[in-house]
Amino acid sequence: MPIRKFADGEVVMGRWPGSVLYYEVQVTSYDDVAHLYTVKYKDGTELALKESDIRSQSSFKLRKSQSSSSSPSRRSSSRSRSRSRSPGRPAKGRRRSASQSREHKDDKKKTIQETSLVLAVLVLLKPSENNTKRYNGEPESTEKNDTSCIILEQKLKPDLEIKRVLEQYSLRSRKDDKKTEEIFSEKKTFVAVKPVEKVPSKTKELEFGGRIGTFMLIFLLPATVFYLLLMCKQDDPSLLNVPPLPALESLWEWRVFGIFLLWFFLQAVFSLLPIGKVVEGLPLSNGRKLQYRINGVYAFILTAAAIGVLLYFQFELHYLYDHFMQFAVSAAAFSLALSIYLYVRSLKAPEEELAPGGNSGYFIYDFFTGHELNPRIGSFDLKYFCELRPGLIGWVVINLAMLLAEMKIHNLSMPSLSMILVNSFQLLYVVDALWNEEAILTTMDITHDGFGFMLAFGDLVWVPFVYSLQAFYLVGHPTTVTWPVAAAITVLNCVGYYIFRSANSQKNNFRRNPADPKLANLKFIPTATGKGLLVTGWWGFVRHPNYLGDIIMALAWSLPCGFNHILPYFYVIYFICLLVHREARDEHHCKQKYGLAWERYCQRVPYRIFPYIY
C-alpha cells in the first residue's frame, strides 16, 4: 500500500494543470484508489492532482536560496577580479562584436514597441462588459459542475488575446516569425493543455449517523409510520396513551397488496406515455446528460379521470380508510423489495454511474442512501418516477378517500370545513409540484443522492401515509372551525405559498437568463463556476426562503385540526427538522462548490431559514 506524502490540511505548492506554474494550495483529502490529492486554491477552486504535481514549500525556498551566489566574499572577489582585468580585454562570456550588441539593443526596442502596441490595441479592442453580460449563459440544466475547465479557460483567455494581437500587429520580420514557428512546433507537446478528468472517489463523509445511524433508521422509519397510524385510530391520541399492537395476520392482505401493485404500475404506464416534452438533466460526472419526459400534469389528469370513473360506478373509495394500515404495510414491503433490487443491480453499475453520497463501501450505508445515482430500465428512470408519481399523486387520492370516509362515518351531506381546508391546501401543493416538475431535476435528490432505501421508502410510504396524517386524524377526531378562523388560516397558507413559489421562480429565472431586463434590479456575487449568488430579493432575505415558505404552509395544514392533540402537528415538527438538516447539507456542498464566494454570501445573508432567529 503506497504511503501518502502530504497530509490533510498541509499547505503545499500545486502545479496548475497544463502549465509549469505552481501556486500555493491546501490539501483537503486523498483518494487511496486513484492516488490523487484534492487540493484547494486560494480562489476556492478545488482540483485533483497527482503527487508528482505537488511539492513542498521548503523545496521552492531552497531553490531560491541556491540560485543566488554562494557567499558575500565570493561575490566581492568576483567583482574585484573583473575590475582587475586589462581594459583592452572584455570579461569572459561578454565578448561580442559591435553588430551583435546592436542587434541585442534592436531586439529590446522591438519588444518594448510591441508591448506598447499590444496594450494600446487591447484598450481599443476590448468591449465594455457589465456584470450581467458576463454571466449571460445557458440555464443551469446545461451547465457543468467541473469548475477546473472554466477557471482554466478564464486564465488562458488574456494570453490567447495578446497572442492574436501580436500576430496581427507584429513588428518582426517574416524570417523571425518562421524561426519562432519552428521552435514552437518542436515544443508544442509541452504547451498543450490537458483537460482534468473527474475520477469518482469513495464517499468519506458519512451522513445520517454513519453505519450505525443508517442501520437504526431502516427500522425506525417504518416503526414511526405504523405508530402514527395506530395513534390516529385511538379515541385519545395522546403521547402517553400507547396503542396496543394489532395481530400480525391483520396487517397483511393479498388483495390490498395487489391494489397497491396495480396503482404503482398504472402510474408507470402513465409516465411512459409519449405526451409532454422531453428535457435534459444536469451533466453527469462523465459529461453525459439523461433525458426525462415531463408529463406529470397529464398523469394527474388521467388519474383524476380514472377515479371519477370508479366513483361513477359506485366504487367505495373509503376502502382505503378501512384498510389504511394494510396499505401502509404493503407499501413498506414493496419499498424494501425495491431497495434490495436497486442495491443488487448497483453492484454491476459502472463506476461513473454511482452516487457521490452512496459510494462508501459499507453495505448498510450504501443500501440506505443509494449506491447508484440514476438506476434505469431502458429509458424508464426509477428514481425520477418515484419522486413525484405514485407517492405524491397517491397522497391526493388518500386525502379524497378520507374526505369521503368522514362523510360516511358521520352521516354528513358535505365534508367539514376543516377537511375542505386540508384537502384544498395540499391539493394546491401537489398540483404546483407537478406543474413545475422540471425543477426537480436540479434538486439534491436527483443530482447527488442515490436511489436506495431512504428515497424508496420516503417516496412510496412516508409521503403518502405521513403527509396525509391531518386528513386521517380528522376522520376520527372531527374539529369545528369558524369562518373567520378558516379565513385567517387560508391567508397564512397563501403567504407561505407566495414565498415558496416566488423564491423558487426568482432563482430559476436568474439561472436561465441572468441578462433578463426584468432581473436588472437583482444583485449577485460572482463565483468561480461562472454562476452568481443572489443577494437581493428573497435570497437576500434568508439563504433558503423556499424552506421558510414550506414551513409556513405546513403549519397552515395542521391548524384546521385544532389544539386538542399534538399528533396532527407531527408533520410541522418533522418538516422543520428535515429542512434544517437539508439546509446543513446544502451549506456543506455550496461551501465546497463556491469556496470564498459562499463565505462572502453568508456574510451578506447571515440568516439561514428564519429571519433574525436562525
Please describe what this structure looks like:
The strands form 4 sheets. The chain has a 5-stranded antiparallel β-sheet with strand order 4-3-2-1-5. A two-stranded antiparallel sheet has the order 6-7. β3 and β4 form a beta hairpin. The radius of gyration is 33 Å and the shape is globular. The model is unreliable at 62-105, 110-175 and 177-199 (pLDDT under 50). The longest helix is centred in the last third of the chain and has 30 residues, at 483-512. α13 packs parallel to α17 (469-476), α19 (545-558) runs antiparallel to α20 and α20 packs across α21 (596-604). It contains 21 helices and 11 strands. It has helices spanning 57-67, 72-83, 98-125, 131-134, 147-168, 174-191, 210-232, 254-272, 296-312, 319-322, 324-346, 363-369, 382-409, 417-435, 444-447, 453-466, 469-476, 483-512, 545-558, 570-594, 596-604; strands spanning 11-15, 22-31, 36-41, 46-49, 54-55, 277-280, 291-294, 376-377, 380-381, 524-526, 532-534. With 614 residues, the protein is α+β, with helices and mostly antiparallel strands. It folds into 3 domains: 10-58, Roll (SH3 type barrels); 208-480, no CATH class; 481-613, no CATH class.
Question: Could you list some keywords that capture this structure?
Answer:
single chain; 614 residues; 55% helix; alpha+beta; globular
